Amino acid sequence: MGFRLVLGCGTVCRQVTEQLPDRDGDRSLVITDDESTVETLREESVPARDADPTDPATIANVDRPDLIFVASDRTDVNRATLEAARDRFPEAVIVAYLGGNATDTDRDRFDELADAVVDPDGAIAAQVLDDAASPSAEAAIELREFLAGIDGRLAVVAHDNPDPDAIASAVALVDIAESVGVDADACYFGEISHQENRAMVNLLDLDLRNLAPDASISEYSAFALVDHSRPGVNDQLPEDLHVDIVIDHHPPRGPVPGEFVDLRQGAGATSTILAEYLDRFDVAFDVATATALLYGIRIDTNDFTREVSPDDFRAASLLWPHVDTSLLDQIEQPSLEGETLETIAKAIKNRIQRGSVAVASVGRIGDRDALPQAADQLLTMDGIETTLVFGFNDEMVFLSARSRAADVDLGETLRDGFDRIGSAGGHADMAGAQLEIGILGSADDEEEVESIVSVVEEVITNRFFEAIDTRPGVPVGAYTQTSEWLFTQRGERDDGESA
C-alpha cells in the first residue's frame, strides 16, 4: 500500500495497529498524545510518536501518507484531527472513526471530509480501513481528480452498435462526470438494432448521441472509452485520437492509450466497474442508470452464470434497491421480430455439426443482432457445446460464437481463425468477428454473388473447425490463398464481441 498514518489511538485504533506489523511492504506511523500507548506500540514494533494529533504543527513535516486513519475515542478530538489532516493532505485517503457522542453536525462534517467513516455501531474498523485503501478506492480518487481537471465537454464513447453493458457504462460515466461539474455526452457509432437493446434505451429514456461516421468531434475537449479500449478499433474514432479515460473489462489486444486507464479483466461486465464508481463517488443512483447497469451486468454474465466474479454480485446488491423491476421485466421480454425468428430458424436448419461443435450460415441478414440470439439458441440443442453463426450484410460477414465447453476459448479461437483476414475478439465463452469480402461488390450478377457466398461459407466453416481443433496459439494455415483472395485485410482488431 505505502505509508499509513494513524492519528490518535483509542480502542478502535488498537484493533487496527495489532495488524500493522504484518502488512508486507507497508510503512506506518502512529501519532497520539497518550504516552503509555506510544510505549506499548513501540514495544510491539509499531512506529509511534507522542504528540497532539489535533495540532496542525504535528503533521506539518510528515511525509505524504497514502492512507490516514483518524482513530481516537472522542468525537471532538477526531473532528479537529480530521480537519487538520484534510487541510494538510488534500489528496490522501482518510478513514475517520466517528466516536461515541457525535451530533448531526459532526456526522455531516465527517461525511464531508473523510473518504470513509467508521460508526461505533457499524462496520469493523479494520475492514473499513482495508476497503478504503483498496486499489479500487484509489482508482476512484484518481478518476475524480482527472475528471475535475477537464476543461470543456467530455465524449463518453461506447463501442460500435453498443450492447447493454456498453450503453449502461457510458450513461453511468456521464452521471459521474456531471457530479463533478463536467458536461458530458454518451456517444456511439453504428446503430442499436437488437430489440432488447432498443427497449432498454426507449423504456429508460436514456440520453445517447448517435454519431455519424463523418461527424465532427471538435466540440469535445476530452474522450473516454467504455467497454472497449482502443480508438479506431470497434469504434469509428480516429486511431491516433488522444484518449483521456479508458474503462473496460475485456482483455486488451494491444497497447491501451489513456491518461486514466482501468482495465479489470476479472469483472464480468464494465457496468460492474461503473456501479462501484458511482458508489464511491457518493453519486445518488438514478433509477434509469441503475436499471441499465444491472441489465448490463446480467446480459454480460448471462444472469450471473458466465465469467461472473464477486464484484458483479456486490455491484448488483448496490444497484438492486434503485432498480425499476417492472421496466426491467419489459426490457427482458420484448417481442421477437419476424426477421430474428427467421434467422434462428435458418441457423437450426443450416447447421453443420462435428461432435459438439455446430456452425451455421444464415445467408443475407438485415439485423446483425439476430446472430448472437441464433448462436444462443443453437447452444441449447442436445449435444452442442460450441456454436458459430454467421451472416452477410453488404460486403461484410458478421460472426457470433458461443460456448459452454471448459476447454474452448472462443476469443482466442476466433482470433486464430480470422484475425489475419478481418477483426475478431471476445471472451472465452462469447466472441465475434467481422470480415470484409473484397470482391462481392464487383460481382456481375446474382448467380456470381451466390457462388462467392458459397465459397466464403465453406472457408469460414472450415477455418472455425480447424481453429477449434488446433492447439491454442498456433495460427491456422489452411485456406490461406482462398482467404486472401476473398477477404480484404482491414488492419483493425476488435477487443470485444462484434456480432
Automatic annotation (TrEMBL):
- In terms of superkingdom, the source organism counts as Archaea
Q: Give all residue intervals belonging to the DDH domain.
A: 155-297
Renumbered to this chain, region (Disordered) spans 36-57
Describe the location of the DHHA1 domain by residue ranges: 355-461
Domain RCK N-terminal, first and last residues per copy = 5-96
GO molecular function terms noted in the UniProt entry? nucleic acid binding
Please name the InterPro entries in this protein's record: DDH_dom, DHH_sf, DHHA1_dom, NAD(P)-bd_dom_sf, Oligoribo/pAp-PDE_c-di-AMP_PDE, RCK_N
> Which GO terms fall under biological process for this protein?
potassium ion transport
Ranges of biased composition (kind: Basic and acidic residues): 40-52
The name of this protein is NAD-binding protein
Organism name: Natrinema longum
Classification of source organism: Archaea, Methanobacteriati, Methanobacteriota, Stenosarchaea group, Halobacteria
